[in-house]
Design a protein that fits this description.
homohexamer, about 325 residues, alpha/beta, Arginase, Chain A, two-stranded antiparallel ribbon, Agmatinase (chains A, B, C, D, E, F), hydrolase (chains A, B, C, D, E, F), EC 3.5.3.11 (chains A, B, C, D, E, F), Ureohydrolase_dom_sf (chains A, B, C, D, E, F), agmatinase activity (chains A, B, C, D, E, F)
């Protein structure tokens, strides 16, 4: 399969799934770029995990540009290899992972776009085992993602890595922006009450009430300034205790990383996590049942030497590896 | 005035108007940056020309970022000096020019934004002599600018510098985007029939019909490929013949310049005008009655060494100089 | 076709060919990026023109990086639209144009790579009507391209746009580098004797003999410094007179453009052509029988805001339009 | 106030002070940019803390460009919000904070500039409660700042964050450069003997004597390489023990941060502090009586995606928050 | 010579002079970089033309950074080859050209620096045939260069390529800055009265008097806006007529080029010359007796892909070629 | 010596060796740039440590460009000063350190290049005390470096800092690439069996077997993810225990640093070491007998504000300081 009908010689693995394009046959920088040089959705019969781009950034309040996030992350993902040594998994052989392309979302109408994204993701979750990893796009897209996941799994626990709470109410009258998805998700009952956590919070806020309201909505927050005190092990402990046994949705705003590690984003905040810390927390979540995830707010126009896009690609790879782990 | 009450020692000119901050007293790189280091609107009793930012870019179809255009153009405008040798005018002494700040426009609702921009510009045109130069922002803002100008002056002739026609109909169902302002303006009767011109058109189109419909809407187009044939003098002749004696609105999409001269924009097209050509055409328009103008689509995230923003600042300076000439 | 089986809703044109992804359905910045959002080779039964990437840059003598040229040009080609107004053609409806992906070439062995590229291109020319547009890659690739074209068409006339002659003999003992393809081609009898031309030559040389030997090999050169004297019309006249009625191969080294228009390349030379001039020359070649072409030496690591990649994409579009014209 | 007379709708806080422009009314990216979108000095009757730019960089020994620091920091400060959760303060409501514009300093005569800066800052300290936060400019400006502060408060304890000691003697015969302010300050009796500390020192030196002389001048140094050994708590302990109960001046050379966190500076040294560490040390200083402070050596021409300018803006925000804490 | 004693295998030419490092033996990107990979001054017994860096930028009024100009131009000059086809000369074989290193100039005291530069250049002109090409640094250095040239040759005709007149009087009290060298030179009798010309002037001025005073000082100006009217031939005619038979000093401020061609400079002005035009004017000056020259205001921190530095290197190469022509 | 004969006034130190150019006489940004402004090899009679560039990058599998590494590191090394406080050594006074220029290596033939590099380095090790620090170039160069070192010292212990193992077998049939030097070195008996260590390993691999084969080849690996668990002290302990008393070769691939600290490299991996960590490990190796070392994979085209080049220069400085310690 593949070699005859399609342009890329995907490696057919022992488990029968179609893996990446063979890097010994085609250099990594060559070929039309799917995520991790994996097959497209239509090139396989079925899949376990679909990586899908959501190039939508009309919900941003400061620097736009995340609409080019999926293209940049795909380009940066050419460096990903099949074996994940820290988790000791070979994700693209263990599961059929595909690049499902991008969901087209209306750039001029947020409500329409949210609906299009929800429908698009729902379509990727057509059987129970289907899992999805979104490449944003701005954080607005987490709301329709949670809506779609909810239709399949019911309320989920959320593990949300971000510099910001994203539980504001409205901005310029708009209920759905990149600063509001988790308030909306909470209001719509998409989250298991009191089993969600923010990790990496920092930076100035509008008001002390921001924190109080966030707690009332059922979130707990691990602030960045706590990390040195409780250590990464402490962070992991808090996260695992919080989510319990529920199905989990993981949302990673790339700005959870310090701007040194992720300059290409819209609302940078100093004092952030290092990529080593973030990866350590993620890898500790291997026992969880992650049913969906996103990596958002990669804005390539502000990136340098693909540093942010490479981070985005690797974080998606970590998420996939957790899903198959 | 100024020195006591405000932070900047504006030069009080012989004509009584308040000019730029004195560059012999305060280095050009110093001070909070208004356009050309001119007084703000509230620092003078009245004004002749108001420069106003419109940081709105929710109407773009490709690269966003022009919302940071006004800030970048202001920063780049620090280099502007009081005397324009080619036109032999001293615009900031001849007329009271002010920086009227930015118009706040809803980033999440194009229709609301268009209305806010129209109201904002209308407010700057409170007496007949008032003229306005907009710093965009994407090209969507030309529509509310023309609406406001129309309320004062009635239909105007449009001289539109751009790589693109901007007379498309809708895009993703939206009637007001950066690709549609002049079709809407034509439909709304804001333009004097058959007295408007596009200059600098080039690049691929959707269909041959794009050109036909544009002509039906009452526009004529000077294509970039014609310039070498008819020369800049030929371009000038066509433009002047077209607009006649009507009041004129000049709209400059920075992408009328070749990407070499203006890389920091959203939809670059090769084969464009040089800045020397553009300036030559503009200066030939000194006899026209320009009642309003804009410089749009400067997207700083794609700029290099302020090349595009410097172009934007100088083009605004040319427009002001024409208005006082 | 297309919509069901493949991920992208390609426009099915009146002529029956499968065109670009519909920009009214999917925003230009969305979707896995083929050249101009055209179908891949395996998505159609046959094709007229194949666009193919050749990500090989091991033949460079100064700045490497053109191996990322195909990916960058594809990304920049998202802005291309179906109708070419200057030539009044709709290339993607008139002919079936496809993205044939990239040819894998050995980065560590130039001779092996040259052979792989020749075989790859030959495979794309499997019936007489097939035409090919290469996206480089460094200029080394023009040699195997000419070899493959020769197998089908016999000797061709070459129109070569470049700052450099590329007829040097060897460099560090290597006969095939980006500075030597056209000496090798001449020696191998791939070119019709005395019917080939360089356009845009400039910059310092090793020796006066470089020019003499180039002439002896059967080339004529239009130097950049001649353009202002003879005009673009003069350049066109010389080119057309030179190539006569022979089948033509067009090779465009992006450094034929001045570094202002194409900073992202390996061996920049000042005093180059503008993109407007280059496009004007190309469009005058519409009567020629162009059987193959390339756009090479786009090195994205040195690019700014995709200026060079956008030029590369548009030049490929011009070439395709000439081929269908 | 504000709305009628001035261009920006500053939030009038419950405490009667005029705060930031309302981000719900005017997007953060809009409006002429004062620091943190705060009122200018002339827009309020009096103030508690004045933020003032000092765009002077004629004292640098390597990369210049910090003269554009104030403009870049102001632009980056648009993201600052009113509430500081880690310190639990609302600085712009607790105190009247203003942007006092820039001090004009002669770029061609260091001695004249030092005097102009001293006079300028002294003018901002016209009553005992006035505090000042300088935005540099290069580190030369710390000397006149200390001179002005001394006129009001007498000798102060200095907490100096920097990769470099800045206690060299002369360079090319000049006594006042960015490498010498604290030797001069010590010689001029501006510092309380033996109560000043450098934090973050690292990199190569001219001579072992540099350290000895620095100690003789009354400084102690916390080297970057000590941080992993003694921890941030150890650093804090040393700093607090050192400064005692004296009024404190805090001087932050942005190069105390590792170049990863602050690439946009003049003399980068590897092995630096992270922004999280720096902020942790600063926040532990809340009990101190900080009477003046600076953030210097932000050189925007070397910055990437405003990473350094955002750091500068946030550090100024931390300093203001400490002053009101 | 050379190969044994020094690290680089310079080509010994038929004329006995020591030329560039052999590009067939050592790749252009290799080796410690002198200008054009030429010998250093101490590696030859005598020389005809000395290229010398003057890394001084303390005279700038806006963006600093030209102190890194010589290093950047040297790096970019690696691409220069021995034969100049347009002038049909082999400059490095016809004359002994050397890289004389950099003149150390005090960055903190302009007067001291001017004197150091004058002495340094005078030292390079120790016999009548010696000629010098300076690599700036800012335009301040043209004054000491003219002083040194005057000591040898007496008053000279100046051909000055620049966007700006550089005949202002003082700025912040300083008589020697990058805006004043030619007024000082005129006052000091360094120029032959009424035989000097500015070429490429454009942009806004302080006052109409700027032009009048410039004319009174004995200059004529070819404005950029004239070029399209009189053509390059007209420019050449005016320049040649102006300088007559006098010894000539050529001063090239890189900002005479449009920012598209030279973004890396301190005070960019739109509407400038193309590099092709500039080179055409220069080449027409081959009959002149050029005794000294400079290329100034290359500020690498604002450059992109070495575009500006490559222009600087090539312009120095043109000047050298004219000197030997 | 030096001042008379050569262009730079090197400091003659008390120990009789010729040190850096005097920074009080010539500003750091001035002068033709050798590494750390040290003498060239031919400017001294003999030397202890030779710093030598190896601008070769034809062995890379992804982003090329390290051929410009030596030039960029030299330029960034201008900031290095003579005294290393952490190690309390004055390396350029304790030992005669020279810049031996670059080794010319064939860019088109890897085998030839490997041989040229081996010969070049061997030539620098002409007496037992000679030590060498290589500035790469890509990691391919470590193989000929080890071969040359072996000829003098026999098998050595390797301390290898890298994100990648670099013990792959072949890639596209080539045995010598930047991914294979240490497998080849092991096979060729260049390493003391079981006394070599990788430090900083991370990122995805091709197969679990990669790790097993690496161990079979005699390597141990300290993974980046272990650092937080065992601490830098633990890393040091493992390294020291591993290398024992053997002569040591230290190879630093700059990508051992996180991309935040070294964006300018070819195959970035997130989750890397900080420069503070790396320097701490290096400094703990002062008791070792380091006979040779390299710093490789600095690719300037991807760098930002010289961050990576500055790291490369400082790491070379650390290595030299260890060699003299």
């Amino acid at each position: 399969m593949g070699q005859d009908k399609y342009s890329h010689p995907y490696v057919e693995t022992a488990t029968g799934v179609l893996g990446q394009v063979d890097a010994q046959a085609i250099p990594r920088y060559a070929g039309i770029g799917t995520f991790a040089r994996l097959p497209q959705r239509h090139e396989v019969d079925d899949y376990d995990i679909a990586v899908v781009g959501v190039p939508f950034d009309s919900g941003v309040t400061y620097r736009p540009g995340a609409r080019f996030g999926p293209a940049a992350i795909r380009q940066a993902s050419r460096l990903l290899k099949p074996y994940h040594p820290a988790l000791d998994v070979t994700p693209f052989a263990t599961a059929q992972v595909v690049d499902a392309g991008d969901i087209a979302a209306n750039p001029f109408n947020i409500d329409a776009a949210v609906d299009e994204i929800r429908v698009g993701i729902r379509g990727l979750l057509s059987r129970p085992g289907h899992k999805v990893v979104l490449l944003g796009g701005d954080h607005t897209i987490a709301l329709p993602a949670l809506q779609a996941v909810n239709e399949v799994h019911g309320p989920v626990a959320l593990v949300h890595f971000d510099a910001h709470l994203d539980t504001w109410d409205t901005y310029f009258g708009a209920p759905c922006t990149h600063g509001t998805p988790f308030r909306r998700a909470s209001e719509q009952g998409l989250l298991v009450k009191d089993h969600s956590a923010h990790v990496g919070i920092r930076g100035s806020l509008y008001d002390r009430a921001d924190l109080l309201e966030d707690a009332e909505l059922g979130f707990t927050a691990v602030h960045c300034r706590d990390i040195d005190r409780i250590g990464i092990d402490g962070v992991i402990e808090q996260v695992l205790a919080r989510v319990g046994q529920y199905p989990v949705y993981v949302s990673i705003d790339i700005d959870v990383l310090d701007p040194a590690f992720a300059p290409g984003t819209g609302t940078p905040e100093i004092g952030g996590m290092t990529s080593r810390e973030l990866v350590a927390v993620l890898r500790a979540m291997r026992s969880l049942n992650i049913v969906g995830a996103d990596v958002v707010e990669v804005a390539p126009a502000y990136d340098q030497a693909e540093v942010t896009a490479v981070a985005g690609a690797n974080l998606a790879y970590e998420l996939i590896s957790l899903m198959v782990g």
